[in-house]
Amino acid sequence: MKHLARALVLAAPAVFLLGCGEQPVSYQKQVRPLLDKYCVRCHTTGGEGFQKSGFSMDSYDALMEGTQYGAVVKPGDSFTSAFVMLVEGRADPSLRMPHDQGESPTPEEVEVIKLWIDQGAKNN
Ligand code: HEC
After folding, report:
1. Over its length of 124 residues, how does the chain's per-residue pLDDT go in tens digits?
2. Which protein residue's CA is at the shortest distance from atom 18 of ligand 1?
């Protein structure tokens, strides 16, 4: 019950943004462009983030594989996904991603990623 309440609270702004109810979020059309914009420059083969953590976002498979320590996206549970914790700076502000002065995703964009994870993080 607690989980349900939390999920509703977290999903509400995203649902609102998307306009009409639980529209499925598309990895290819909505999530991928955000990763390309904010993350891939470091999290690609040879990039700083990839070298230090082993985390590449070059492909859906690489994204789901996570770091050398394991997955960072937990399908169905954005709240405990390390991916989201880092982007929101929830783990520790010094670990917030992206890691430099570069542009970071807007709260609306973060909601899209969270909704996608909550819907099962599919390669859709
Ligand atoms: C300027 C380079 C840079 C950018 C841009 C960047 N990262 Fe990172 N990322 C790093 C580095 C470096 C590490 C290695 C761990 C550390 O130093 O904290 C890392 C590690 C990570 C980790 C693994 C942390 C762990 O537990 O080992 C995740 C998840 C992550 N980044 C997500 C993201 C996401 C999501 C974005 C885009 C919103 C992003 N990063 C953008 C540099 C970057």
Report:
1. 566 666 666 665 555 555 556 789 999 999 999 999 999 999 999 999 999 999 999 999 999 999 999 999 999 999 999 999 999 999 888 889 998 878 899 999 999 999 999 999 999 9
2. 95
Q: Output the CA 39–ligand 1 centroid distance in Å.
A: 7
CA distance 88 to 98: 10
Return contacts of 48-54, CB within 8 angstroms, 24+ apart: 48/99, 49/97, 49/99
Instruction: Answer for the pair 3, 78: CB distance below 8 angstroms, yes or no.
Output: no
Which residue's structure tokens are 């998307």? 18
Ligand 1 centroid distance, CA of 123 (Å): 21
Burial category of 103 from C-beta neighbours within 10 Å (exposed 0-12, middle 13-18, buried 19 and up) = exposed
Q: Do residues 87 and 105 lie in contact, with contact meaning Cβ atoms separated by under 8 Å?
A: yes
| Residue type at position 78 | S
